[in-house]
């Protein structure tokens, strides 16, 4: 392991790759600093620029955006009281009150330090558990991989709070999208007489359309209902380094616990930083000797929030690299980068591309250091960037999305794909249909079809899925996740009804 890591460090340590990591971190922080932009949006905008790069450079750039994006949300959260990303919602609970008390520099410093430590701890989790899981999954055959993908999709759909049926329908729609074009036996399917559809839909324009384009349309709609008022904030922030060191010294257990929660939650397909954010904040409050201080500007709340959402970075890489199952939406895009470069994430990646795996480790570590330096040195400018009005931001991002989709194959059809799926994504969003199961269905659909047909070619009996222990276990977990989600939905509905009756 030491040899390939040193080789990877040598490749990542070149001036060009280091420069890409710095650019990626800066863009990620900027994206995270702008309310409503999100980490996923930042990664989608950068994705097309990786086409002409070698795998190490492309992945390093994306890792930089990933690390910077999860930490960037703290800026607008502390300075404006508006979370820059969904994964920094709980940062506002204590970061903004601390800033209101006249200590914005202290709140930002604690958040940046927590993000750095969370990322480092999550890399340790990735380095330790990634190879172990990959080694174990080397024994997976087509039956196990098929069942695992089914479990991942049902788990993601089940996490769609209060919308299990909609989540399952979204996952099914994502799988259906991947059936357009030629199948593995060269049979043409669902081309609707359009030659351009014979090769199917490219993942990039579909993902940009479903998520980024639809979200931007939603932002345009909000502009009609909300009058944008620029908030006057003091950007002359001073970071009290001595006070921050003192604060962090008393948060060792909180930092470790929150980072581990973030890493473990990130490793679950489809969960991501938002779930880790609320879970770690809740646990920090329960374990605190002074829970009444949470929400008033306590360092414990900021540490719990920022350490957990940054730790998602390393944790989300575990299933992506070891199993070929994206941990969340940014990881689905990262998986697309690897596939475009001819690299298939999964157990064999650790054997066939060890240097690239090591490059990911090294990029995460270097990105964490760059993130700290950028945040501490440029915090005043990031605070100003967070005030960019949506009227300017939306058309610029839409243009970049269209250029990125076209640059994939220099094909105008991809622009139409982006536009059509953007409308579909917007309509689904309006209908409160979760988009995460849909996108993961698109990403995993080809592999699911390939593994399913391979399994049936080896043994025509469907009962084989139930007679093989691991595949039967994954299918049982898929059923269990659906049943548990139904139970949770009914429990939430009963509580709502009880509250409604009390109000009456």
TrEMBL record:
Output the Pfam families linked to this UniProt entry: TctA (PF01970)
Q: Where are the transmembrane segments?
A: 20-47, 59-82, 107-133, 145-177, 197-217, 329-350, 356-379, 391-409, 415-444, 465-487
Q: Where is the DUF112 domain?
A: 18-440
Question: Does the UniProt entry include the keyword Cell membrane?
Answer: no
Q: Which UniProt keywords apply?
A: Membrane, Transmembrane, Transmembrane helix
Cleaved signal peptide residues: none
UniProt superkingdom: Bacteria
Name of the protein in its database record = Tripartite tricarboxylate transporter permease
Organism, as annotated:
Vreelandella maris
């Amino acid at each position: 392991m030491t040899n390939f890591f040193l080789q990877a460090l040598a490749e990542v340590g070149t001036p060009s790759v280091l420069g890409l990591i710095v650019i990626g971190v800066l863009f990620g922080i900027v994206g995270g600093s702008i309310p409503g932009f999100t980490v996923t949006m930042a990664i989608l905008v950068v994705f097309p620029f990786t086409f002409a790069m070698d795998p190490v450079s492309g992945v390093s750039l994306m890792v930089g955006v990933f690390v910077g994006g999860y930490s960037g949300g703290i800026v607008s959260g502390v300075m404006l009281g508006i979370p820059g990303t969904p994964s920094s919602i709980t940062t506002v609970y204590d970061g903004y009150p601390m800033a209101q008390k006249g200590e914005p520099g202290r709140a930002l410093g604690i958040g940046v330090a927590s993000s750095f430590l969370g990322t480092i701890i999550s890399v340790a989790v990735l380095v330790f558990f990634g190879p172990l899981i990959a080694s174990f999954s080397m024994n997976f055959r087509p039956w196990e991989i098929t069942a695992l993908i089914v479990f991942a999709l049902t788990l993601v759909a089940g996490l769609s709070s209060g919308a299990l049926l909609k989540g399952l329908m979204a996952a099914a729609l994502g799988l259906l999208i991947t059936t357009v074009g030629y199948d593995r036996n060269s049979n043409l399917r669902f081309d609707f007489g359009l030659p351009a559809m014979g090769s199917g839909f490219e993942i990039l324009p579909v993902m940009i359309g479903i998520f980024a384009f639809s979200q931007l349309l939603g932002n345009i709609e909000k502009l009609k209902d909300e009058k944008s008022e620029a908030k006057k904030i003091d950007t002359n922030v001073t970071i009290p380094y001595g006070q921050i060191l003192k604060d962090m010294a008393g948060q060792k257990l909180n930092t470790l616990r929150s980072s581990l929660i973030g890493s473990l939650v990130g490793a679950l397909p489809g969960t991501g930083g938002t779930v880790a954010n609320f879970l770690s904040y809740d646990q920090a409050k329960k374990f605190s000797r002074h829970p009444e201080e949470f929400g008033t500007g306590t360092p414990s709340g900021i540490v719990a929030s920022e350490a957990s959402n940054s730790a998602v970075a390393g944790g989300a890489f575990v299933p992506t690299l070891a199993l070929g199952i994206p941990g969340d939406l940014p990881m689905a895009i990262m998986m697309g980068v690897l596939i475009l470069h001819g690299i298939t994430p999964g157990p064999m990646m650790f054997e066939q591309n060890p240097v690239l795996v090591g490059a990911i480790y090294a990029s995460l570590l270097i990105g964490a250091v760059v993130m700290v330096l950028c945040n501490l040195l440029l915090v005043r400018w990031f605070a100003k960037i967070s005030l960019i009005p949506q009227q300017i931001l939306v058309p610029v991002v839409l243009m970049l999305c269209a250029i990125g989709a076209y640059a994939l194959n220099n094909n105008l059809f991809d622009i139409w794909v982006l536009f059509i799926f953007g409308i579909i994504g917007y309509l689904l969003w309006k209908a409160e249909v979760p988009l995460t199961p849909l996108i993961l269905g698109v990403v995993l659909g080809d592999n699911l079809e390939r593994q399913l047909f391979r399994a049936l070619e080896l043994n025509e009996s469907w009962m084989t899925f139930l007679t093989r222990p691991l595949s039967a276990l994954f299918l049982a977990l898929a059923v269990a996740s659906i049943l548990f989600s139904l139970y949770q939905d009914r429990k939430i509905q009963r509580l709502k009804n009880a509250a409604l009756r009390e109000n009456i």
